[in-house]
Amino acid sequence: MPSGTSPPASPPRAPGYRTLLRNREFAGLYAGFTLTVAASTLSGCALGTLVQHRTGSPFLTAVSMYGATFATVFGALTLMSVADGSRPRRTLLTLQCVSLAGVAAQAIPGLPLTARFGLLLALGFFQSLGTGTRLGLLAETVPAAGYAPARSLMNITSGGAAVLGYAASTLLLRRLGPSEIFLLAAVLTGLAVAVLAATVRERPVRSAHRPGLRRTWTTNAALFSDPGARALLLNLWVPNGLVVGCEALFIPYAPEHAGTLLAAAAAGMLLGDLAVGRLLGPDRRRRCAFALRLLLAAPYLLFAWHPPVPVLVAAVFVSGAGFAATLPLQEQLLALTPRPVRGQVQGVESAGRMTWQGIGAAVAGGLAQFFGPAVAITALTVASLAVTAGSRPFVAGAGAIGAGSPHRPPITPGKGLHL
Length: 419
Description:
globular, mainly alpha
């Protein structure tokens, strides 16, 4: 090192989970998110079981469990700018109250399936706006170095709540009907509203632009015109969505063991996010991303041979760890995003990921309707692996841009998308 120059400053150390949870506002967001995931898991299992019993259709069962994700894309395309252009605390609480009303309505005995699917789509639309608002608040609540650990902790929570939710729903459905399960989900959603109201403080509006359809389209156009962002979004959405389509066929594939398989997938996701988010630094996370995306899909190839249930449970558990590939990709996307539109961009990313889960579930259900669950799972697995392998050069290019390449200057937060 030449004399008179100082060594480069080391990046700030990422805070641990305990440090993050000592932040009262983050703890509130975290607890509200946990309760919301638990409620969604219970209501999803209740609705899937109800639809399976009434129709016997693998397609309708898969859509009922993941159909709300279809509507998230409409939120992302129309009103997602409210995540940055309105008061975030007020917006989040309002959307949580809408979710509470929708879940409570599902508990009405004898409600027609058409009404249930209508509620499902409406909740998906508002859920996408709530996710963008929550993630925008998260980026302001924790320091930049704490973003990946915070997302990791929330993903771990999602896995843990899903494990408990699927296990609890399996037991509860033996004693209670779907309407009672929906009431329990409504209680959990109400608790989430109370926690958020007590802990989250109001913050200034991030964007100077008035939220609405035009502003949403303008920001989305800038997002999708950036090649690095496009590559990251493709890999955040498609491989995951196809694997979720495989999960949507657990009930038709093995009705007596579906709850166990769903719990194993959630447990694997929990372990993967814990290991990748807490134990690995940013550089190592990025280097592991491709292998994790392969791990996400490859174990599902075993379903074609109908092995014993313990083997399937182990395979699904291992596959769940591959969902941790979203963490390094989300870090790269955040680095490309200016602060005034962070809520919308993260909301679009989440909405697209959820929409692709719905697409994966619908495609899986349609294939299973004609060819059976095993063939459908195998086809979606091969497609997920093909997308991951074929898009690897584009993701590597996005990583080089984010880190600074010899041909282009590094993209820093606030400079990636020109809005």
